[in-house]
TrEMBL record:
Keyword Transmembrane helix tagged: no
Domain Transketolase N-terminal, residue spans: 28-224
Alphabetized PANTHER family for the sequence: TRANSKETOLASE N-TERMINAL SECTION-RELATED (PTHR47514)
Protein family: Belongs to the transketolase family.
Cofactor requirement: thiamine diphosphate
Family annotation (InterPro entries): THDP-binding, Transketolase_N
Protein name per UniProt: Transketolase
Assigned keywords, A-Z: Thiamine pyrophosphate
Length: 233
């Protein structure tokens, strides 16, 4: 099974147009646009996934915990050939597979149905453990969460456990748009570092900085990239 990119002809510059096709109420626009660059760099340069690779066991797993704002996710999936652009215009409609929360049963390329805060990181821990238990080598797990999700206690249990067991195949991206209710001494990365994670904090709009942080070596430890973007207003 191959993970070579399908050359759809789309690039990063096409994403704003693809996102503009999705209209209607309850779009959670800031939640979506805050993730756009982080998602693009992952799918364009890092993740071993592709539409033609399907559900091959050795594929990387990407879990969108920040699923209440999926427009950027849908735009990236369309750009990478997981489904046709024509589906985007139906976003949120009764008969559209593209709901306000992504559904793994309906949307090709989606690993989990998500949107409720605090679920993605624990699911990513379980996914990483499951891959190890099945003896799947090479595949890694990525999860994208929002800074406000760190208000949920389930995430802190997952952070503590993953660090304690050295869950090396686990990677997290935290989109920091200053929407969390509670501050943390030393910032978000300090919470993960205290639990034994490898950490990096970067400009969430800088593609080269994101790529460098995503691909940093972290032997024996899970890895988190905190991507800072403009504050939510």
């Amino acid at each position: 099974m191959t993970f070579t990119d399908v050359h759809t002809g789309y690039g990063y510059d096409d994403l704003p147009r693809l996102m503009s096709l999705m209209t209607g109420d309850e779009k959670h626009g800031p939640a979506a646009t805050s993730t756009l660059d982080a998602l693009w760099v992952l799918y364009d340069r890092v993740l071993r996934v592709s539409a033609e690779g399907g559900e091959a066991p050795e594929r990387d797993r990407f879990l969108l915990s920040k699923g209440h704002g999926p427009m950027a996710y849908y735009a990236v999936l369309a750009a990478k050939g997981f489904f046709p652009e024509s589906l985007l215009a139906g976003f949120g409609a009764y008969d559209s597979p593209l709901g306000h929360h992504p559904d793994r049963v309906l949307v090709p390329g989606v690993e989990i149905s998500s949107g409720s805060l605090g679920h993605g990181l624990p699911l990513a821990v379980g996914s990483a453990l499951g891959l190890g238990a099945q003896g799947v080598s090479g595949a890694v797990v990525w999860v994208l969460i929002g800074d406000a999700e760190l208000d949920e206690g389930s995430n802190h249990e997952a952070i503590a456990y993953a660090g304690a067991v050295g869950l090396e195949r686990l990677h997290a991206v935290v989109i920091d748009n200053a929407s969390a209710s509670h501050g943390r001494p030393g910032g978000i990365a300090a919470r993960f570092k205290a639990a034994g994670w490898s950490t990096a904090t970067v400009d969430g709009r800088d593609h080269e900085a994101l790529y460098e942080a995503y691909t940093a070596s972290h032997p024996g430890r899970p890895h988190v990239v905190v991507a800072r973007v403009e504050a939510k207003v």
